[in-house]
Amino acid sequence: MDHMALSALNRNYGIPNQLGFKEGPGGLVVAEIKNPHGEATVALHGGQILAFRPRGHEEVLWLSRASDFETGHPIRGGIPVCWPWFADHPTDNTKPAHGFVRTAVWSVSASEALADQSTRLELSIADSAQTMKLWPHSFRLAIDVTVSDVLRVKLTATNTGAAAFECSGALHSYFSISSPSQITIKGLAGCDYLDKVDRFRRKVQQGDIAIASETDRIYLDTTAVCIIEDHGLRRQIGIAKNGSHTTVVWNPWIDKARAMKDFGDDEYMRMVCVETANAATDTISLAPGSTHILEGVIRPATLVRRDVDQGA
Ligand code: TA6
After folding, report:
1. Stretch 234-238: mean pLDDT
2. Does residue 98 register a pLDDT over 50?
3. 3-state class (DSSP) for residue 208
4. If pLDDT is split at 50, 70 and 90, which confidence band does 42 have?
5. Cα–ligand 1 centroid distance for 91 (angstroms)
6. Which positions are annotated as active-site residues?
7. Contact 271, 62 (CB under 8 A)
8. Is residue 23 predicted with pLDDT exceeding 60?
9. Ligand 1 centre from 119 Cα, in Å?
10. What is the distance of C-alpha 194 from the center of its chain?
C-alpha cells in the first residue's frame, strides 16, 4: 500500500495511542492495537488476526516462522477466516481450500475506542468479479475484533443477493502452547466427531483431548466452551462461542508439518488449533437479506494447579 493510502487509513481510522496502521511482514498492512488491557495485530490481508497478548500474559496465538506474507497466499497462524466453505470445496477440489476470503485484502470499515478502554476494529469484504468466478453469490462479510484482556471476534455474513445460499466456515484459531505433552483440551467429552485421520470415521470423544499424534477432528453439533489447559505455561485459554455448532481440533504432527512449506518442521510442538466453526453437517443456510453471526471469545487465564497450588 502506498504511503498516501496508509496515511489516509491512519487519518480515518487511527486512534491516538491505541490503534495505528503500518506495513508489517511482507509489506502487508497491519493494524497494531495497544490499550491498557493488552495488544493485538490484525492484517488487512485475509482480515486475519495475527497476534493477541493480554497484559500480564505471553502471546496467546501461534504464527509460523515459515509463513508466507504475500498477496494470494494464506498466512499460517493467528486466526484465519475460512469462508464460504471449510476445508475442501464440497464439489470442486480445484477451488482453494478453506474458501477465498483468507487470501483477499479486506477493507477497514470501522474503529472505536470503547468506554472500558478496549479497542474495536472492523474489517469487511464483499463479492467481486473474482469471487463470483469461485462462488456465484452476492455477500458482505465483516469481522469485528474487540481487544481487551479477552479477544472477541465476530464474523458477520450477509446474503446481499436475490437467492438463498449455503455456506460453512471457521475462525481457524492457532493457539501457542508449551508442548503437546503439557496440554489437555476440555469441553468436548461425549461429543460425536469425524476423525479425518481415520477416513472421516464417526467416533465419540472419550474424556478430555490429549495430543500425541496427528489430530484432525471435526466435533459436531456442539456449542460447548473449550479450555486448553497448558501446564507448561501454567495458563489456560478459554474458547467460548456463539453461532457455531462445530469445533475443529487440529495438530499436523511430524509428517504433515514437514510436508507444509509454510510450517516449520518442529513447529507442531508449539501449536494447537481449536477452531470455532460450522462445518460438515453443520452448514448455514442464508436467505436473501439475512445475516449469520459466528463469534469466538478467547479468554486466557492463569492455570491454578489444584494438585500443587492448594498444597494437596
Ligand atoms: O482445520 C483443520 C484443517 O482442515 C486440516 O485438515 C488442515 O488442512 C488444516 O485445516 C490447514 O489447512 P490449510 O489449507 O491452511 O493448510
Report:
1. 97
2. yes
3. coil
4. very high
5. 17
6. 172, 275
7. yes
8. yes
9. 30
10. 20
